[in-house]
Amino acid sequence: MGRKVAVRTGIIAGLLAVAVPLGIAAEISQEATAKYILATVKAFRTVYVKQIIDQAKKSGVKPNENWTKDDHAIMLPAQFVKAAGAELKDFELGLIGLTPIYKSNLPKTQAEADALKKMQADPELKVLTFADGNQFKGLAADFAIVQSCADCHNAHPDSPRKNFKQGDLMGAIVVRFSK
Ligand code: HEC
């Protein structure tokens, strides 16, 4: 009896010795994956803002939320990120905020809301990654880097928050994929 228990304990300990490091390795690679995706999305958005929008402005074409109805308008950077997300089938990409213009941009879970609050409290926290239910998630802080971020959100009729200032955290780019 005692030996059986000892053998069983031995087997379990052996399995754990292999499974735990494997589990940690899986966690690390999911963290790296989330970070690479977020960095890529940010890079594309920066190119859109600094190069495409800037170039388009020279010929009188400006970003506008209702760009589909205006031949001299192109999508907002937030719409660009969301449109790219809509093209993806294997994982989710989006933008979230604690006081978003549209409720569809609210955090999807308490863990996402908590992560946003943590980022709001500590501006040094640029990226957060974590497991949440059956998904792994990454958030990249999105700050009002220029006054126009704050101005447009404050002026938007659907925005519940009207006191954004330059430098405030406005939300985050979010990536979600299966664990
Ligand atoms: C001209 C107006 C305008 C400007 C400028 C603007 N935004 Fe937005 N932003 C919007 C609109 C409209 C949405 C909602 C888009 C949607 O979900 O379809 C949005 C969505 C967002 C979201 C998702 C959460 C939410 O509030 O809905 C974040 C985060 C965000 N913007 C950050 C920024 C940052 C950071 C900047 C500046 C670099 C910025 N925005 C500049 C209009 C603007």
Give a topology summary.
Elements: H1 2-57, E1 62-63, E2 73-74, H2 77-87, E3 92-96, H3 110-121, E4 127-132, E5 135-143, H4 147-155, E6 169-178
Parallel strand pairs: 1-2
Antiparallel strand pairs: 3-6, 4-5, 5-6
Helix pairs in contact: 1-2
Biggest β-sheet description: 4 strands, antiparallel
What small molecules does this complex bind?
heme C
Low-confidence stretches: none
Series of secondary-structure elements, N-terminal to C-terminal: HEEHEHEEHE
Description:
Helix 1 packs across helix 2. Strand 4 and strand 5 (135-143) form a beta hairpin. This protein has helices at residues 2-57, 77-87, 110-121, 147-155; strands at residues 62-63, 73-74, 92-96, 127-132, 135-143, 169-178. The radius of gyration is 21 Å and the shape is elongated. The chain is an alpha+beta fold. The strands form 2 sheets. The protein has a 4-stranded antiparallel sheet, with helices on both faces. Strands 1-2 form a two-stranded parallel ribbon. The chain has one domain. The chain is built from 4 helices and 6 strands; from the N terminus they run H-E-E-H-E-H-E-E-H-E. Heme C is lined by residues 65, 76, 78-79, 82, 95-97, 100-102, 105, 142, 144-146, 148-149, 152-153, 156, 170-171.
Task: Looking at this protein, list some descriptive labels.
two-stranded parallel sheet, 179 residues, four-stranded antiparallel β-sheet, binds heme C, alpha+beta, 4 helices, elongated
Summarize the structure.
The mean pLDDT is 91. Strand 4 (127-132) and strand 5 form a beta hairpin.
